[in-house]
Amino acid sequence: MTVRLRPDLDDLPVYVPGKTHPGAIKLASNEVTFGPLPSVAAAIAEAAAGINRYPDNATTELTGALAKKLDVTPAEIQAGCGSVTLCQNLITATCRPGDEVLFGWRSFETYPLATRIAGATPVQVPLDAEQAYDLSAMAAAITDRTRLIFICNPNNPTGTVVGREALLAFLRAVPGDIVIAIDEAYVEYVRLGDSQNYSALELRREFPNIVVLRTFSKAYGLAGLRVGYAVADPRVITALSRVHLPFSINSVAQRAAVACLEADDELLARTDAVVTERIRAAAELRTLGYRVPESQANFVWLDLGADAVPFARASAEAGVIIRPFDGDGVRVTITERNENDAFLAFAAQWARR
Ligand code: PMP
């Protein structure tokens, strides 16, 4: 007799992260190149000495530090084992099988995966001609089964953003009982100019159905330790804490995240160099003839259509690992000048074929 498993998961793809090999330049996962600051490494070592004990399930120190930084109460924060877990927990907290989760597409691959794992239905609304979230088409796609909406801002993998006014119009159009998750994993890299820069955190008072998702994996450089957080109305946070897997944020990760917040200025200052490189790389790629939408994240998107996979394969052969999306395009992480130059050299060679 064979074991009985859920047949609706039979065709679910297994998530395969970008492969790498020794000596290759890895520009596939939107990480930073630098390791932990000395103060963060020291906090990790200190926390490691106590790993015979379970971690603080309430993440009291981390939640307190975040609340202070963001000027909210601890009751408005839930930490998670990476923001990917919070995406999943939000779906668990809002959806029963058959309910709908709405998001733009192409976007972060966890949204459809986690939706299907929960037995809910992903509703994917194509991006607009500029590869950005099409909020009017999304508003039109809402049904009485819609329970959760993801807005990835900036969008992974295209790097595009939705502006404050467009988001406000959308929030006003959506029924207030639908939870709207604004995924700000890359917010630290946004440079729209002082009058245009914003975070959905500012809109939470007016729209208590907003959940803002953030992570320590990108600008803060803790991808390997897995820490993210959600900021939302205390009622939503209570629901998230109910579905939270006990002890899923380990004690080393908690201490490291607090140490990162203490070194906030130094870590965030490093995003400036990436932004400068992003502008340079995007301009050079466009000069070479590539279609590259305006990115506000630490990566750029090359709209390559059917060439995406062969392009990424040839790039890997040239020693630079990037992330292909079959039939669509490639996403290339922007890091330091020498690494970006290695990719640009390959891109120039490919363009001259
Ligand atoms: N949201 C987006 C848009 C992302 O790109 C990622 C990471 N690729 C995440 C969330 C998850 O980040 P983490 O689980 O590492 O916090």
UniProtKB/TrEMBL annotation:
Domain Aminotransferase class I/classII large: residue ranges: 25-341
InterPro entries given in the database record: Aminotrans_II_pyridoxalP_BS (IPR001917), Aminotransferase_I/II_large (IPR004839), ArAT (IPR024892), HisP_aminotrans (IPR005861), HistidinolP_aminotransfase (IPR050106), PyrdxlP-dep_Trfase (IPR015424), PyrdxlP-dep_Trfase_major (IPR015421), PyrdxlP-dep_Trfase_small (IPR015422)
EC assignment: 2.6.1.57
Modified-residue entries (N6-(pyridoxal phosphate)lysine), positions: 218
NCBIfam families: hisC, PRK03321.1
Family membership: Belongs to the class-II pyridoxal-phosphate-dependent aminotransferase family.
Protein's UniProt name: Aromatic amino acid aminotransferase
Lineage: Bacteria, Bacillati, Actinomycetota, Actinomycetes, Mycobacteriales
